[in-house]
Design goal:
about 140 residues, alpha+beta, Lipocalin, 9 strands, disordered N terminus, Lipocalin-like domain-containing protein
């Protein structure tokens, strides 16, 4: 019985540490994510670095706010909003909500929301490509 109690205590501690580690991993999205790759709907239409149509980044704050900044043709556009992080069966998503319309909001619906998801290679991608928008990949 004594061994059983020790085993249960050990597993409880181990399990609580695993949950903390999971939370820590999921909050790894705080900070600056820079656009590193764009792709179009045609095969082999991938561009990186200065060859991309625009340069942009997201800055995710710990208080649930973010800033998105894009520079295109020497014109810089910046907009801020709020985000929520959700975990689905296929991974973690960030839903971004903007206070007003802007040309730098990339989505399928023409509203003031964007959805980003985390890929297996520690990148953040836009779901905009699912409706013929560009494939956008961001790295921290």
């Amino acid at each position: 019985m004594k061994h059983f109690t020790i085993l249960v205590a050990f597993l409880s501690i181990f399990n609580s540490c695993s949950k903390d580690a999971l939370t820590s991993d999921n909050t790894g999205y705080y900070g600056k994510w820079t656009l590193v790759k764009m792709s179009g709907t045609l095969s082999n239409s991938e561009t990186t670095g200065a060859a991309m149509e625009w340069q942009e980044f997201y800055l995710f704050n710990t208080n649930g706010t973010f800033t998105k900044s894009r520079e295109r043709n020497a014109i810089k556009t910046t907009i801020s909003g709020t985000y929520t992080a959700t975990t689905h069966s296929d991974g973690m998503y960030l839903e971004l909500t903007y206070p007003n319309a802007s040309e730098i909001i990339g989505n399928c619906y023409g509203n003031q929301k964007e959805v980003l998801y985390f890929t297996d290679n520690n990148s953040l991608s836009s779901i905009w490509k699912s409706c013929d928008g560009p494939g956008l990949e961001y790295k921290k």
